[in-house]
Design a protein that fits this description.
With 302 residues, the protein is mostly helical. The chain has one domain. It is built from 14 helices and two strands, in the order H-E-H-H-H-H-H-E-H-H-H-H-H-H-H-H. The chain has helices spanning 3-8, 47-55, 58-65, 78-94, 97-111, 129-150, 156-171, 184-194, 202-212, 223-239, 243-249, 255-273, 277-281, 284-297; strands spanning 31-32, 153-154. The protein has a two-stranded parallel ribbon. Helix 2 packs antiparallel against helix 6 (129-150) and helix 6 packs antiparallel against helix 7. The longest helix has 22 residues, at 129-150. It is globular. It holds the Pfam family MPAB_Lcp_cat. Residues 1-32 are annotated as: Disordered. This is ER-bound oxygenase mpaB/mpaB'/Rubber oxygenase catalytic domain-containing protein.
């Protein structure tokens, strides 16, 4: 890449502040006022990257890596853990007070078992409000990136509405509302300051790499197909990661990879734009029904 190209290259979407609500006017600028796509099924593609961002805080990383909650371990039960996370997103932003209360109780019971020991390299507790705020912030940033990518740029009203929904991702548990940044500009300041606390050591990196490559436990494809699948998964995961997290994960990234990522996302965006609303929002639109069913039948929620 030449100097002129680097200067004129647009800022990658994942690096942009959330308070930047629109792009310069132009024939390709897509501005959306839709709020019904807050939880897009395509957003699941950003899931592994968001997990990496959350676990990049050592307290969260070791909390998950050393978790005593066997059924919730992402390395051993990735599908179940994914269902729990996606249900949390759906319940936090669109659930009824009764659904939120039931899910909050279930999550709190699980979190009560997650705390460091004398052997842990860092001190942590799942009820730590600062760590929960970080997790909520990562989830919110992921929602913004997905919306910008697959729906379009937001006007101020839509962006503010999504920010209020994002606050619920942190405050549904122990985070007090006054801990959540007051507005999107305050969120950007919080995010930049929090990057100072980001660090992925060799142990957590080894734990996270199979997640980055979407390498499911117990599922092995034929050699060449497995390599191609992981190569594609790594492209998507790394594309959704801001550069700071790529560096912590030691995942290489260059202009050619960015172009391949952009082309793939553009193709998916085109498909998403013509899909029915039910398809766009799957599986989030069925998870609340699944939650009600689990409550009625006495099945575990997390």
């Amino acid at each position: 890449m030449t100097l002129d190209e680097s200067v004129s290259a647009p800022v990658p979407l994942v690096e942009r502040p959330v308070s930047e609500s629109s792009v310069p006017a132009g024939p390709r600028a897509r501005v959306s006022t839709r709020s019904d796509d807050g939880m897009l099924g395509l957003g699941l593609l950003a899931g592994p990257a968001n997990v990496i961002m959350q676990l990049a805080r050592p307290g969260v990383g070791y909390g998950v890596l050393e978790s005593r909650v066997e059924s919730g371990r992402i390395d051993r039960h990735p599908v179940k853990r994914a269902r729990t996370t996606f249900t949390y997103l759906a319940v936090s932003t669109n659930g009824t007070p009764e659904q939120q209360a039931a899910f909050r109780r279930a999550v709190n019971r699980a979190h009560a078992q997650v705390f460091s020991t004398d052997e842990s390299p860092v001190k942590y507790h799942a009820f730590d409000k600062d760590l929960q705020l970080w997790v909520g912030a990562c989830l919110y940033k992921g929602v913004v990136d997905v919306h910008r990518l697959f729906v379009g740029e937001m006007d101020e009203e839509t962006a503010d509405r999504l920010y209020l929904q994002g606050r619920a991702l942190a405050t549904m548990l122990q985070v007090p509302e006054d801990m959540w940044p007051a507005d999107r500009a305050a969120f950007d300041r919080y995010w930049q300051e929090s990057l100072d606390d980001v660090h992925i050591d060799d142990t957590v990196r080894e734990f996270l790499y199979p997640i980055a490559a979407t390498r499911l436990r117990g599922l092995a494809l034929p050699g060449p197909l497995q390599r191609q699948t992981e190569k594609l998964a790594l492209l998507i995961t790394t594309g959704f990661l801001p550069q700071r997290f790529r560096e912590e994960m030691q995942l290489p990234w260059d202009a050619g990879q960015q172009r391949r990522f952009d082309r793939l996302m553009a193709a998916l965006r085109a498909v998403n734009s013509v899909s029915p609303k039910f398809v766009r929002q799957f599986p989030f639109n069925v998870l609340l029904k699944d939650l009600d069913w689990r409550v009625r039948t006495g099945r575990p929620l997390v």
